[in-house]
Specification:
By secondary structure, the chain is mainly alpha-helical. It has a single domain (27-162), classed as Winged helix-like DNA-binding domain superfamily/Winged helix DNA-binding domain (Arc Repressor Mutant, subunit A, Orthogonal Bundle), CATH 1.10.10.10. It has helices at residues 12-40, 44-55, 63-70, 74-86, 106-154, and strands at 60-62, 90-93, 101-104. It comes from Kribbella albertanoniae.
Length: 166
């Protein structure tokens, strides 16, 4: 049992900031995903896959590369790609490598092109404009530092089962 009286606990201001961040992230993510689903029939996960594929030079990536880009586990990626394939958004194509490539279809490209402008407008309204240029720059720098700190931890003293390998 953990003794809650000992440990590196957060002070009141730190706890307030952390919980405020969690609420902001969850509220923003949920709101954005609801718009994607209701207006375009895409889940946030669909959007994430389609963005990665549409930004790839060839419109295709190997599944493990998608896993690295999205930080998804292999089984989640496989199940989600199967659902997207049934809807005609992506297709798996065999190649010389061990794992098949995942390619965006014409339907997938049309879907991402249809929703991207509205999605970007909402990001601007609910995130970019709220932060403003100076705070947005500071947030970007702080976010990069957090990611870098986690990457260093993962490559040194992080237990293997926590590292998040795809």
């Amino acid at each position: 049992m953990v003794d809650v009286g000992k440990g590196p606990w957060l002070d009141d201001d730190e706890q307030k900031a952390w919980r405020s961040y969690l609420l902001m992230r969850k509220t923003l993510e949920t709101h954005m995903e609801r718009h994607l689903q209701r207006e375009f029939g895409l889940s946030g996960s669909d959007f994430e896959i389609l963005v990665n594929l549409s930004e790839a030079e060839t419109g295709r990536m190997r599944a493990f590369e998608l896993g690295q880009a999205t930080q998804w586990e292999k089984s989640r990626m496989s199940h989600h790609l199967t659902r997207m394939e049934k809807r005609g958004l992506v297709r798996r194509e065999s190649c010389d490598a061990r794992y098949p490539e995942v390619a965006i279809t014409d339907e997938g490209r049309a879907a991402i092109e249809a929703c991207a402008p509205e999605h970007a407008a909402r990001i601007r309204k609910f995130f970019v404009d709220v932060f403003g240029p100076e705070r947005l720059t500071a947030l970007g720098e702080a976010s990069a530092e957090v990611v870098d700190t986690i990457r260093k931890h993962e490559s040194s003293d992080c237990p293997p089962e926590v590292r998040g390998h795809c």
